[in-house]
Amino acid sequence: MPRKALFLAIGLLAFTGCASLSQNEVETTRPASDEPSVDKVTPVASEPPPTESFRPEELYLLLVGEIAAQRGQYDVTLGNYVEAAKQTRDPGVIRRALLIAESLNSESALRTLTQTWIDVAPDSQAAHRASAIQSLRDGRLEDTLRHLEEIVRLGGDADFDSLAAMGSRLPMEQQQELLRLFEELQARYPDNPEIRYSHALLQHITGQPQKALDTLEPLLDQERDFQPALVLYGELLHETGRTDKALRHLQTSSRRYPENQQLGILYARMLVSENEFRAAQDEFSRLVERFPNNHGLRLSWALVALENDELELARTQLRQLAEQGQHSNQALYYLGQIAEQEGDTDRAITLYEQVTGGSHYFTALSRAAQLRADTGDSMSAVEHLRAIRQESPEDAASLWLIEVNLLQEEGLYDLALESANQALAEHPGNQSLLYARAMIHERLGSIDQAEADLRAMIEKQPEDPTALNALGYILTVNTDRLEEARQYIEEALAMDPDSPAILDSMGWVLYRQGDAEGALDYLRRAYEIYPDPEIAAHYGEVLWSLGQESQARVVWRRALDDDPDHELLLETLDRLGVDDL
């Protein structure tokens, strides 16, 4: 709400009487941003109005505050309300003063007012909740828990789980303090299920899944219907390596509590993570039937159906989302994928070009451009990208990159280099464009220029494993500076030890240095992660050099099945005289 509208909504309290504000009041606290939902809007019990009217000087403070608000002098309004709150000690005035302090983000006023409210109404749940929020903002965790504990004593819901949930955003020292405070709290309230659950949640968030499981299990023994704990239990079983038990638990619990979306969604997603796509599709179907207005579930159902090659089911759900304007960019992108998979190029291009934003926007543009180029009209695709670039200058660098990569993919290296040079003139130092130009330079045999671009990337971002690996690989393939190349690749591998591209480079530089045995392990790992033709060419050659010719043939044959025209693979087979695959 705009500030002026906010204050006008308060009304001329001096004339209407502040005492009436305490009747059926609703507490309004700071909108959730970095804090958890401890500070959600919460109904507050009515408090009896004061029996005496305000003194003239108190009414004057409020009246001047309202007039100042209408004139935009909000600091005067706040100052008057804080003073009126301290003088009147009226809960209604305190609440209104808190509302103004929230609007102006005045931490000092909030501290004063929350303490005043506690002094005036020590048995008010709302007062303790407001004080807990302020203590949390100030980093006074012990005071936060003390106020929440008072809410429990007063018979209210203290939202301990919301406090636990923010543990991941705390520094390590405060995480440890919060864990200690929860341990003490649980010792004082051993039978309070919310406290035990929140303690387990905090342990989970701070990376202690086994401890969290140990904390949670006694709760589930006593409170079998505590549904948040059932959700957390499934997550913890999975994280501690008991996936089969987790799946059984979630299946049983989601059937027992079919209205609990969290249980069903966690079960479905865990099935996906375990590559149980058929079962996951059935689960998402069940969830969509029960929760038809949850559009995210419908999208998940469509994507799992797509994974299962059930194109018609996926298309039906994606079309419904697009027609309803829900997740429409994602829906259009995947509808484009379906059309492309079915060979309907024109339809695929149309769908891809209808994607107007979101995480798939540039991928959709790239696919549309590539499909246009595949029809034999590369320059038409380029012109289309340039037209979009004129309309969307804020996306120019990304659109240049799509153009450069497209031209390179089409083998138009001179044009690709021309575009890359122009792009970098407009966007100097852009890492992605520098990398793309380095690859073009290598392809054109300009190794020194490729090296210069990669070194420029590394100078700007010394810990960029992609640039380090590319430099090492280019030196490996095109020069005799193998020891230097190996150093770059080793640096990259230390940063990204599971990258198949870097593992492949490491294996290849070792092979070129004469260490075929050492190379084999790296290439095997790379091939197991990502068996693309280039890695297969290297892996097969090292196997061949070690006398493992039959295994090399298997690797090469599989690669040829995937890409019979792969240039490096064919060059390798020709160089080694292998023609009987």
Automatic annotation (TrEMBL):
TPR repeats lie at residues 500-533. Residues 1-19 form the signal peptide. It comes from Marinobacter daqiaonensis. The keyword Ion transport does not apply. Keywords: Signal, TPR repeat. SUPFAM superfamilies: TPR-like (SSF48452). Gene3D superfamilies: Tetratricopeptide repeat domain. This is Flp pilus assembly protein TadD, contains TPR repeats.
